[in-house]
Amino acid sequence: MDRLTNTIRPYAWGSTTAIAELIGAEPSGEPQAEMWMGAHPGAPSRTERGALDEVIDADPERELGTAATAKFGPRLPFLLKLLAAGAPLSLQVHPDLAQAKEGYADEENRGVPVDAPNRKYKDANHKPELICALTPFDGLCGFRPPAETADLLEALEVDSLKPYVDLLRAQPEEAALREVLTAVLTADPEEMAETVTEVTAAAGRLGGAYEPYAGIAHHYPGDPGVIAAMLLNHVRLQPGEALFLGAGVPHAYLDGLGVEIMANSDNVLRCGLTPKHVDVPELLRIVRFEATDPGVLRPEASPDGEEVYETPIDEFRLSRFVLPEGAAPHDLTAATPQILLCTAGTVRAGELTLTPGQSAFVPAGEKAEVSGDGTVFRATVVA
Questions:
Q1: Burial, 116: exposed, middle or buried (Cβ in 10 Å; 0-12, 13-18, 19+)?
Q2: pLDDT at 56
Q3: Is the Cα dihedral 106, 109, 110, 113 positive or negative?
Q4: How confident is the model at residue 325, as a pLDDT?
């Protein structure tokens, strides 16, 4: 197996301390948002054999296995990350596979440069993702029932919110959510900024259920995404709990450290909490306007000690082992590619010793045993 050297992305929303504390380094004072583990061309992991994407390109079947290559093509189909949010990420949604293929083909045919700020579809793939908390982790996930949102907004006693309250109470669920989100994102910017200012003050006074939204408004004053965020469920994950985020579900991460895994795609449509381009008509085409339970996931333990986070897609499979000192090694040898990530203690993976934040790539079919006294996450595919 190959020890990985990984890139840390310094996005502005990143925590200045969380990743440094995990890996036992001194904080630099700069944001460290994501550590990428995989073969994404934007920041491929490096091995002693070269960049991981180049290693795979040289012999896909050898590295990925015959079944995974046949099912997903000659690319590693997932990207694994450490994600450390110190401020809210943009409110966003991802397309399903058919929408991604259609959107990508349309922008290619129209000659929209792939690096253009208004480009929405960077590839033809969907982007389901899973976030597993390593610390208490706050996020927004899916629409709450319209009547509950109406109560939440009404209690703020902000006059300009009354039309939204009335819509949420009078319309069927799908129409209510669609009309209110449309109205929020297409409102006059100056009028919306005034509304957000009033909402921020009221949320700060009321506290409780309003605290997450007051925090969002602190980071994004005047942004219509603050009101859009109030349409969504607030979720606090405890360490070991996870969220699966499928196509069309609006979401945002607010604060905390977690292990994230996703299909290998960059397709994001933003709803707010960002200075980046928001394409309202395309966003409204992709969003699923239905109230949903966030569906907090807890791992399913198997007899061999592997704890699996079950999801409905095949591009990735995430599990973990909490290894007690002195226990017999676990044989993880598989016909699919794997990335192993240590998040606590010290883990022996084959001939490698992994400490928190360190990871390894295991080619398909390679012998892989783990032991030690710590926690290791295992990322692979279903092929």
A1: exposed
A2: 98
A3: positive
A4: 86
Catalytic residue among 3, 46, 75, 270: 270
Residue 87: strand, helix, or coil: coil
270 is catalytic: yes
The confidence score (pLDDT) of residue 133 equals: 98
What are the beta bridge partners of residue 234? Answer: 140
Q: Residue for token digits 């992709």?
A: 286
pLDDT at 326: 82
Asked whether the beta carbons of 130 and 239 are under 8 A apart, the reply is no
Cβ 383 vs Cβ 365: under 8 Å: no
pLDDT at 271 over 90: no
Dist. CA 162–CA 142, nearest whole Å: 22
Q: Is the pTM of this model over 0.85?
A: yes
List, in order, residues 6 or more apart from 302 with CB less than 8 Å away: 308
Rounded Cα distance between 376 and 369, Å, is 12
How long is the chain?
383
**CA separation for the pair 303, 285 (Å, rounded):** 44
- Given CA atoms 124, 291, 80, 330 in this order, what sign does their dihedral have? negative
Say yes or no to pLDDT of 167 above 90: yes
Number of alpha helices (DSSP H) and beta strands (DSSP E) in the chain:
12, 21
Using the predicted structure, report yes or no on whether residue 303 has a pLDDT greater than 90.
Answer: no
d(CA 32, CA 20): 8
Are the beta carbons of 226 and 273 closer than 8 angstroms?
Answer: yes
- pLDDT score for 17: 97
Residue 335 in 3-state DSSP? coil
d(CA 343, CA 133): 11
Whether residue 117 is predicted with pLDDT greater than 90 in this model: the reply is no
pLDDT of res. 327: 84
CA distances for 23 relative to 19, 109, 358, angstroms? 6, 45, 8
Question: Residues 122, 245: contact at Cβ < 8 Å?
Answer: no
Q: DSSP assignment, residue 122?
A: S
| DSSP class of 197 | H
Quote the CA–CA distance of 363 and 24 in Å, as a whole number: 28
d(CA 296, CA 100): 26
Give the mean pLDDT of 141-161. Answer: 97
Both tokens assigned to 309: 């986070």
Q: 241 is written with which tokens?
A: 């709990």
Question: Beta partners for 142?
Answer: none
